[in-house]
Amino acid sequence: MKKFIRKLSRAKAARSLRFSIFGHEKMAKEKQRSDVPKGYFPIYAGVEEVQRFVVSAKLLSYPIFVELLKKSYQEYGYEQGGVLRIPIQVFVFEHFLDSLKRGQKPLTLDEMNL
């Protein structure tokens, strides 16, 4: 698991929005892999419009996030290079992160209308 997170955190970013379960903050455009703190990894979320998020590794413990990883595998396979990409609308992913931030139980993919 540590190797997986380390590999994901090596990707560079042009624009980033950092999310943790407890909050988020915009990050400078020129930041590179140093903008990924220990215990976090970058993700591209989006279908047509793609946005980069830096999320806590704690997300890996949520079954819905595991479902999102499976959806990513089905769409892109295991051989996708660089940052992990998840085929989910940006606003839906932001809603998912915000619900975690508020301490609410995350919805399932079916409930999120994916």
TrEMBL record:
Q: What single Pfam family name could you report for this chain, choosing any that match?
A: Auxin_inducible
GO terms of biological process kind: response to auxin
Q: Which UniProt keywords apply?
A: Developmental protein, Growth regulation
Protein origin, superkingdom: Eukaryota
Q: Which InterPro entries match?
A: SAUR_fam (IPR003676)
Q: Which PANTHER family would you find in this protein's record? A: AUXIN-INDUCED PROTEIN-LIKE-RELATED (PTHR31374), AUXIN-RESPONSIVE PROTEIN SAUR72 (PTHR31374:SF198)
The text of the family note is:
Belongs to the ARG7 family.
Name of the featured protein: Uncharacterized protein
Q: What is the lineage of its organism?
A: Eukaryota, Viridiplantae, Streptophyta, Embryophyta, Tracheophyta
